[in-house]
Amino acid sequence: MQRMLEYRKDVSHLRQMIRPQREVVHRLSRGENKLIRQVMIPYFRDLHDNLDKIEQMASSYNEQLLVSFDVYINKTAYQTNEGIKILTALTALTLPPVLVGSWYGMNFEGMPELKNPHNYWITMGLTLVAMLVVWIWLKNRRWF
Fold it and tell me: Cα–Cα distance between 13 and 68 in angstroms, integer?
């Protein structure tokens, strides 16, 4: 990434150097200046064409660097989104045990389900089934 930014800076610097030179050479190639002999005008036109090609190449390189930069940014964003997606999936998976644990952790005395001797196993089974349902749902959505 650092090299890409350095290349972009170099290409911008090259374009800044070529533009004024191209304008000066363009004026000289039209024969407006009396100090330039007619024999030299074709050489200045050739130089002007070469400077045009160099500027077009620099512009093309600048566009390619911008595209490369966009690809890099998109790749980084995709990797970040994948990490966030996994964290979200883990949060969704742990939601049923957190919900059940918070419900039974309130320490109310009048909860009718506490009197059943098999309630612990029933609650654990329902929690595991809920986690399994969330797991299957996430698998179907290709989050894992």
Answer: 19
Where along the chain do its domains lie?
Answer: 2-140
Q: How many CA atoms lie within 13 A of 95 on its CB side?
A: 12
Q: Which two tokens stand for residue 21?
A: 């030179």
Give tens-digit pLDDT for 108-133.
777 777 788 888 898 899 999 999 99
Q: What would the mean pLDDT of 10-30 be, rounded to a whole number?
A: 91
Nearest to 28 by CA among 46, 53, 6: 46
Q: How far is CA 17 from the centre of its chain?
A: 32
Q: What sections of the chain are H helices per DSSP?
A: 2-29, 41-104, 119-140
Question: In the Cβ-directed half-sphere of 42, how many Cα atoms lie within 13 Å?
Answer: 1
pTM of the entire predicted model: 0.59
Distance CA 64, CA 13 (A): 16
